[in-house]
Design brief:
With 168 residues, the protein is mostly helical. Helices cover 70% and strands 0% of the residues. 21% of the residues are buried.
């Protein structure tokens, strides 16, 4: 056959369009870097006060009213470090896809928990960036909008990572 090589392997005869540009446009690269920086710094910043005061963060988790009591202390210790490591991975570029996957997963969980508490009318303190938060419904709606926007940015970034891995 014309596509066979002497080694027994076959040629890959699939057609690929020829492009002159092999790298993504500069604007997309700069946008992706900006989103990486913003999401990464947001999660590093959000983790800091939780790492310093896990007891207060445990009270916040208890106030959500959705977690089993036995898991709250473990979550109060583990979640801030996951936020910190995921944010640092995204900023540094080391394991950036893994860091982004963790961030997107955490954002999805945050969205579900906030939505659940809004639907049932439960007042809660977010504890996202400080422990003195507002317990008003308008504040919770803003949290939900903010997290949805950050998840959208994370999904855009995931798509750009996939596009970059396919092209080179």
């Amino acid at each position: 056959m014309p596509g066979d090589l002497p080694s027994g392997r076959r040629w890959n005869l699939r057609w690929k369009p020829v492009t002159t540009e092999t790298r993504p446009p500069v604007a997309r690269t700069v946008t992706a870097w900006g989103i990486r920086l913003i999401l990464g710094l947001t999660f590093v910043w959000a983790s800091w006060h939780k790492i310093l005061a896990p007891d207060q963060f445990a009270r916040i988790l208890y106030g959500y009213g959705v977690f089993p009591g036995a898991a709250i202390n473990l979550m109060a210790i583990a979640v801030p470090f996951v936020e910190l490591i995921a944010g640092l991975c995204l900023i540094s570029g080391l394991y950036k896809r893994s860091g982004l996957l963790l961030i997107n997963a955490m954002l999805l969980v945050f969205i579900l928990i906030i939505s659940f508490n809004l639907i049932r009318g439960h007042q809660f303190d977010c504890g996202c960036f400080s422990f003195e938060g507002s317990r008003e419904t308008a504040s919770a709606v803003w949290l939900l909008v903010r997290d949805v926007l950050m998840l959208g940015a994370g999904l855009f970034l995931w798509k750009s990572f996939n596009r970059a891995s396919e092209s080179g």
